[in-house]
Design a protein that fits this description.
The chain is α+β, with helices and mostly antiparallel strands and about 280 residues long. Helix content is about 25%, strand content about 25%. It is built from seven helices and nine strands, in the order αβαββαβαβαββββαα. Strands 1, 2, 3, 4, 5, 6, 7, 8 and 9 form a nine-stranded mixed sheet that branches. Strand 6 and strand 7 form a beta hairpin. The C terminus is likely disordered.
């Protein structure tokens, strides 16, 4: 059974074998970027490249980025403490294309890695796509041949990603993994509980959103993907959801959690909020 270190290295080796430069994790404090408090995604260090303001010696990259789930947009901070899959600190595995390949190739890489490299069962994988992204939907349906029952169109809240209120953004396809009935939760993506867990988000960077909320096409449509190393390790190793036992706490545990406000709704626990 591969360790987390082996999975991290295997991910980077896979993309290195497909022409990607391996880029070290950047600082948790973004440099010269007033829009973010902390680095919350692997694409942060490439923001200038996506916007066409910076050029690198490569057009494909992969990294394992250290992230903090605070600051920016779509960070799911409110879910910390309520699910087993949202950590305050985590590592994000990602592959990136800067005007090189686009949707079809990104989808192919992700599917091949999950089903042929780490050998996840295709029957346990669901895919959600942005409701207006017919191009990505067609690739999943016709090329990958995801059954219609596990290929779901969703709205902007779930399948349109942006790093912050302004900056690079675009529609996304998310790959979810069904951990089975032994894990509490709904048997479909974006439901309650941890049973069907988002594993990998493939963002198709096509736009820049300005201060007025207007979308402008990027000079070079690009790819930004992110997959939590902890989540990948949990499903590959067949363990319970990361950070959570797959059962209700015992009575003493429940009493302790109640006294200290663990799991209480935001602003209603003894401390009136959750801690980072």
């Amino acid at each position: 059974m591969p360790t987390a270190n082996e999975l991290r290295q295997g991910f980077l080796d896979y993309f290195k074998g497909h022409g990607h430069a391996i880029v070290p994790s950047s600082s948790l404090i973004p440099q010269a970027d007033p829009t973010l408090l902390f680095t919350n995604a692997g694409m942060v260090q490439f923001k200038g490249v996506f916007l066409g303001e910076e050029r690198r010696a490569y057009t494909r990259a992969a990294s394992s980025q250290k992230c903090i789930r605070a600051g920016g947009k779509h960070n799911d901070l409110e879910n910390v403490g309520h699910t087993g899959r949202h950590h305050t600190f985590f590592e994000m595995l990602g592959n990136f294309s800067f005007g090189d390949y686009f949707k079809e190739e990104a989808i192919h890489f992700a599917w091949e890695y999950l089903t042929r490299v780490v050998h996840l069962s295709p029957e346990r994988l669901w895919v959600t796509v942005y409701k207006e992204d017919d191009e990505a939907y067609t690739v999943w349906e016709k090329k990958v041949k995801i059954p219609a029952a596990r290929l779901v169109k969703c709205g902007e809240a779930d399948n349109f990603w942006q790093m912050a209120d302004t900056g690079p953004c675009g529609p996304c396809s998310e790959i979810h993994y069904d951990q089975g009935p032994g894990v509490p939760g709904d048997p479909f993506p974006n439901g309650e509980g941890d049973r069907v867990m988002e594993l990998w988000n493939l963002v198709f960077m096509q736009y820049h959103r300005d201060e007025k909320g207007t979308l402008h096409p990027l000079p070079r449509p690009s790819i930004d993907t992110g997959m939590g190393l902890e989540r990948l390790a949990a499903v590959v190793q067949g363990t319970v959801p990361p950070g959570r036992e797959g059962h209700a706490p015992s009575a003493p545990q429940a009493q302790h959690r109640h006294r200290h406000g663990v799991g209480a709704p935001r602003g209603r626990g003894p401390g009136q909020d959750e801690q980072l």
